[in-house]
Amino acid sequence: MTNLYHIFGDPTRQRILAMTAQRECTQSELVDVFSISQPALKKHLDLLVNVSLLHVKKRGKFRYYRLNEAMYRRASQHIQQDLESMFDQKLHQLKHFLEEENHD
Fold first, then answer.
1. 57 or 96: which carries more pLDDT confidence?
2. DSSP-assigned letter for residue 51
3. Helix H segments across the chain?
């Protein structure tokens, strides 16, 4: 599975997800918003489509991109659970360290 932190950590992909959560967007509409080339934007879109975070529909000569809300929620929940687990582990380690310090 592609690293979710890599996907969500990129500011361009974050903006693409935010925009496509509001409405369907064509690639050309998205290119107009970003200060990157069309091929660079296409790489971001392809990655998001490949991990099912975006739906794509072809109508005529245009492709319309829209956030896959169900997959976005699942990915967000996975990250949240991962961070909570990591946080709990660090708190446990801190507690153990402090208990050892108190016994010395």
1. 57
2. T
3. 4-9, 11-22, 27-33, 38-50, 69-103
